[in-house]
Amino acid sequence: SRVTRRLLGLLLLWFVSLAGTAGILTVEPDASRQNLSDTVRYISSDQNTPAREVASVPDEQWQTAPGEINLGYTRAPHWFRFTLKNPSNQELERLVELEYPLLDFVDFYRLTDNQSPELISSTGDHRPFNSRMYEHKHFVFPVEVPANGESTFLLRVQTGGAMQVPLNLW
Questions:
Q1: Around Cβ 109, how many Cβ atoms within 10 Å?
Q2: How far apart are the C-alpha atoms of 165 and 7, rounded to whole Å?
Q3: Can you point out the beta strands (E) in the chain?
Q4: Which DSSP string do the residues of 135-168 spell out, in sequence order?
Q5: How far is the C-alpha of 159 from the C-alpha of 71, rounded, in Å?
Q6: What pTM does this model have?
Q7: DSSP string computed for 18-30
Q8: Residue of 101, 96, 107, 99 whose CA lies nearest to 156
Q9: CA torsion sign, 11 to 12 to 17 to 22?
Q10: Which residues are bridge partners to 94 per DSSP?
């Protein structure tokens, strides 16, 4: 019927609009906590794939994370990507929390203007505790988002256990 076709058309537009914003979280200036997991995209890679190569992977090759990220047991490194968008007129400083402490190796990068990855932190439960930027049971990374701008980040995770990557923005 006409109503059914129109409803299906509206649903299709809604899904297309969601796909276009995948990977981008608008930072709410007054929010104390925002869930990042719904906006994260990911890919798996070979053991030695460099960050600069991952940064150049086309958008269509990244998968949308399934809500709370739990990819099961895998030894393959996985890369996670997200962009923070700041609609305000002032730079915002936040913390990204990876709320699962049982990950062997965790590398956190910021993509610069020319899409070159800048390593912010190398940590994980197979590295010394003092490799963490904050003395916290979870992995915590500082981020800055320019006024009226965006910042994109990459996270490389490799573990022998469960690949769980719950992410929050504080």
A1: 24
A2: 35
A3: 24-26, 34-35, 41-44, 63-64, 70-73, 78-86, 92-98, 105-111, 117-123, 139-145, 149-158, 162-164, 167-169
A4: SSSSEEEEEEE-TTEEEEEEEEEE-SSEEE--EE
A5: 11
A6: 0.81
A7: HHHHTTEEE--TT
A8: 107
A9: positive
A10: 143
Who contacts 1 (Cβ-Cβ below 8 Å, separation ≥6)? none
The owner of tokens 């104390």 is 32
28-37 pLDDT, tens digit each: 888 889 998 8
Rounded Cα distance, 78 and 70, in Å? 12
Per the structure block, which two tokens stand in for 67? Answer: 């809500």
The first and second tokens of residue 100, run together, are: 């699962």
70 touches 162 (CB < 8 A): yes
Beta bridge pairs of residue 111: 117, 152
pLDDT at 137: 86
73 Rama sector, left if φ>0, alpha if ψ -120 to 50, beta otherwise: beta
Higher-pLDDT residue of 105, 72: 105
